[in-house]
């Protein structure tokens, strides 16, 4: 296997393991009081976000490759960095972690439905038609298996989970940055050619996703901590899984340029946004 693909798969597995290690059974139990909120939030994301991505790509006239990369990002589950943003903003971390975990657990079905529908409705556009069985198996291996392992460790050996969570999360975070930097170097010519058009598309997707999340939280009339957790899960996508699927399943390393731009723009925007949210709502 290509060392770059192996690095992406390893980092993605560590990210998903950290998600499982971070979910205390008691917190999951407390979130069961709102099953409708949890289920509909995860489901709505797989409807609204790919449609947003497709609309933005059409409006800006993106190339087929850039359109496919943006839709791939939109179809991925919630990124585990959402838990840190929520913590920084004073939001409900248990709710964010639960939505993160549920999104990853449902990813095989959700992503297969998105790509299958897209292929049926628009068979020639964009180039996103992985075999359904291969996509399901890959997402199961990359998302479901490590999360399940983390949940088992957290339930049976909570002290070990608490001890491993920090190093695992830090290693995964450093790995994401390293892999993206590696990918940018490998795809520097592609990045130089695509960033003028890709950057506005990524920025619009982040803003539109945030707006949809805010409207969704407002529709549920959630208190401020819960509203922040729900809001952030809309625009924050799992870049590790997106990069892994782009390179290992779709054979499209050129997608990495847009994925990297998304991550590089998302991090400072949401770190600042979380800080401002907390400042404006000290009671949170």
How would you describe this structure to a colleague?
The protein is an all-alpha fold and 284 residues long. The chain has a single domain (3-279), classed as Na+/H+ antiporter like fold, CATH 1.20.1530.20. 81% of the residues lie in helices and 0% in strands. It has 13 helices and no strands. The chain has helices spanning 3-21, 25-31, 35-60, 64-75, 82-88, 93-105, 107-121, 132-156, 158-186, 188-219, 224-233, 239-248, 256-280. α3 runs antiparallel to α4 (64-75) and α10 (188-219) packs antiparallel against α11. The termini are far apart. The model has no long low-confidence stretch (mean pLDDT 82).
User: What's the CATH class, please?
Assistant: Mainly Alpha
Query: What is the share of helical residues?
Result: over 70%
SSE topology string: HHHHHHHHHHHHH
Q: How large is the share of residues in beta strands?
A: under 5%
* CATH fold topology: Na+/H+ antiporter like fold
Total individual domains: 1
The chain-level mean pLDDT equals 82
Q: Quickly give the structural class.
A: mainly alpha
Please identify, by name, the CATH architecture: Up-down Bundle
Low-confidence parts: none
The DSSP helix count reads 13
> Describe the biggest sheet?
none
Number of strands: 0
Shape: globular
- Please report the distance between the alpha carbons of the first and last residues: 47 Å
Question: Rg, please?
Answer: 18 Å
What key attributes describe this structure?
single chain; 284 residues; mainly alpha; Na+/H+ antiporter like fold; 81% helix; globular
């Amino acid at each position: 296997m290509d060392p770059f693909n192996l690095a992406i798969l390893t980092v993605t597995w560590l990210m998903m393991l950290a998600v499982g290690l971070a979910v205390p059974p008691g917190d999951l139990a407390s979130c069961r009081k709102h099953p409708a909120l949890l289920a509909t939030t995860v489901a709505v994301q797989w409807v609204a976000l790919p449609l947003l991505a497709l609309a933005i790509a059409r409006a800006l006239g993106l190339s087929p490759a850039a359109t496919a990369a943006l839709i791939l990002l939109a179809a991925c589950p919630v990124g585990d960095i959402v838990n840190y943003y929520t913590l920084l903003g004073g939001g409900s971390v248990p709710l964010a972690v639960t939505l993160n975990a549920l999104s990853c657990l449902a990813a095989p079905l959700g992503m297969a439905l998105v790509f299958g529908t897209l292929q049926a409705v628009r068979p020639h556009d964009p180039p996103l038609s992985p075999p359904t069985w291969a996509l399901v198996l890959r997402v199961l291996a990359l998302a479901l298996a490590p999360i399940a392992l983390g949940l088992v460790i957290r339930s049976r050996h909570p002290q070990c989970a608490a001890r491993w969570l920090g190093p695992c999360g830090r290693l995964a975070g450093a790995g994401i940055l390293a892999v993206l930097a590696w990918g940018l170097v490998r795809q520097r010519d592609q990045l130089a050619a695509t960033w003028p058009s890709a950057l506005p598309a990524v920025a619009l997707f982040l803003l539109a996703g945030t707006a949809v999340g805010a409207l969704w939280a407002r529709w549920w009339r959630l208190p401020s901590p819960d509203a922040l957790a729900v809001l952030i899960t809309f625009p924050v996508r799992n870049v590790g899984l997106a990069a892994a699927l782009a390179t290992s399943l779709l054979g499209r390393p050129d997608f990495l340029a847009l994925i990297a731009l998304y991550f590089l723009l998302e991090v400072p925007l949401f770190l600042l946004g979380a800080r401002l949210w907390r400042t404006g709502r000290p009671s949170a």
